[in-house]
Design brief:
four-stranded mixed β-sheet, disordered C terminus, about 5% strand, mainly alpha, about 55% helix
């Protein structure tokens, strides 16, 4: 169903793109718009990750300069049975994150410096699990192409306003041009937001299952939403068509969960995660526990050695991620006097 809905939305945007081209230049304009739309789809397919990452000045990091962040993503990827995506950090005080890429084999996840500095390791794991869920669901390609076409339609509307369309068509063309100017950006926005809204709930649920703790993500969403409402994201303001790719709208928050908000209402998402947490706990409580003989040196507790350790899953169950603990040497496992090891330190 998601694939069919995505295909229909992208087809609608391409048709809208062609309609704006017709309003500007008649049949020749429509043909040119179709060629441009096809070219943009092809270009976005192969370069979607590079485009968005470049827009937000993301810096690729690895185990050498961001070992804790890289390790969290690595363990979550293993839990989700995904190839390890490339990891990026965005130098922005606003806590936020997104994923991009045309498929799981060519995916990337990006987190802002504000996210890593504001959230606990558990909450960062919840956010990254959400982004990996987008990769698993193959949302990233659709969201990036939609952002590209939305921006292109807006530019076409502005172009129609300045060019006045094909004057040979008389008053009828003037009306079409006016509609292009007013409706094209609006329609592109609706389609873009519809894709984002329907997929965020799904990514929340799957992400919570990947990390095994829905409340980690719920807590992270609450913190990010509060901070995003008061801390600006300069790069997102310059490229508003990419706003729907972030886990929380980087352009500001809306009070109600409507078709015209770029993301579902954060409170609704948190409530859904809390309900999922209750559901998962009830399922775990109802499952019969299998007693087994313990080795003499084995701990008496079934909970592992810390908040990041979980018992081995039963056969057929989704593996829960285990992420390195913060310990006593700082939020990211560093001593206060350690040398900085990355652009976010």
């Amino acid at each position: 169903m998601n694939i069919l809905r995505t295909a229909m939305l992208l087809a609608a945007m391409t048709a809208l793109f062609m309609g704006v081209g017709y309003a500007i230049g008649g049949q020749s304009g429509m043909v040119m718009a179709f060629i441009v739309a096809a070219g943009m789809n092809f270009f976005s397919y192969w370069n979607s990750d590079k485009m968005v990452l470049r827009m937000h000045h993301a810096v690729e990091v690895g185990p050498q300069n961001a070992p804790e962040f890289h390790e969290i993503v690595k363990r979550l990827s293993e839990a989700a049975n995904l190839p390890m995506p490339r990891t990026y950090i965005i130098n922005s005080p606003q806590p936020n994150a997104f994923a991009t890429g045309r498929n799981p084999q060519n995916a990337a996840v990006a987190a802002s410096t504000g996210l890593l500095e504001t959230l606990t390791p558990e909450e960062v794991a919840g956010v990254m699990a959400h982004e990996l869920a987008h990769i698993t669901n193959r949302d990233t390609l659709t969201m990036t192409i939609t952002a590209t076409l939305a921006g292109a339609i807006s530019m076409l509307g502005n172009f129609a306003f300045f060019m006045g369309g094909n004057r040979n068509n008389g008053n009828g063309n003037a009306v079409a041009t006016l509609l292009a100017v007013l409706l094209a950006p609006f329609a592109a926005m609706i389609v873009q937001m519809a894709i984002s809204r329907t997929r965020e709930y799904s990514a929340d649920r799957l992400g919570a299952q990947i990390c095994g703790q829905p409340l980690w993500l719920a807590s992270a969403l609450e913190k990010i939403a509060i901070a995003a409402g008061r801390i600006p994201n300069t790069d997102a303001e310059r490229n508003p068509a990419t706003a729907h790719m972030f886990i929380i709208n980087p352009l500001g928050q809306h009070a109600r969960d409507s078709l015209f908000s770029t993301h579902p209402n954060t409170l609704n998402r948190i409530k859904a995660l809390e309900a999922l947490d209750t559901e998962m706990r009830q399922m775990e409580a109802s499952e019969p526990r299998e007693e087994r003989p313990r080795a003499p040196d084995e701990r008496a507790s079934d909970g592992g050695e810390g908040p990041w350790e979980t018992p081995s899953p039963k056969p057929g169950a989704r593996k829960k991620a285990s992420v390195p603990p913060a310990g006593n040497s700082g939020q990211w496992g560093r001593k206060p006097d350690d040398e900085p090891r990355g652009p976010w330190s």
